[in-house]
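CATEGORY: protein folding

GOAL: derive structure tokens
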Amino acid sequence: MENPETDLAINTLAQLQILEACRHYNPEVRVVFASTRQVYGRPLQIPVNEDHPLAPVDLNGVHKLAAEQYHQLFNNIYGIRSVILRLTNTFGPRMRVVDARQTFLGIWIRRVLEGKPILIFGDGEQIRDYNYIDDVVDALLLAANTDQCCGEVLNLGSSEAFSLTETAKVFKKNWCRKAKLNTCPSRKTAWSSTLATTALITAASKPNSAGNLRSASKKA
């Protein structure tokens, strides 16, 4: 929730500028926008599908949602073919660990490296799903090269989910058995649990898939 104007410039204004440049100079381009599951806010049911109500609880979610609407508008009005992927916690080599701006996993890794306790907000029973960076890259390329994805909003998550406590225990087992687990009160902007359906992105990955992705996902 810090630096709202900077967050707005990066996550909303920059997207509008990119789309305007595409409209004027390269209208045939295909754009894949990496959005976030934060646009859903606190989930009303688990798993969360793409039709879930949108009620972000922090500035980043609000700004990402505004950017999504710009992408959909330019797709529908100007024919700038755009695909929106709503990502969950992405991890992998060279991930940001200086803070938790991209995922809480980053700051957990930093605390382990510094010999500090892993901080678990709330009771630790909240569930999360994760994306490895190589899988995210594959999904971005898939979305960019699949005609049926144009104009769509797709969740990108995992079929497996782990509680925060389970995730912390994986950290201990694999990287630092001496790491301590400390609990602390949940933040007002924290989610209870998150787990996304992946039917639409799975339908897009089917060979020779044709027609509407939502129809294809129901047949899968």
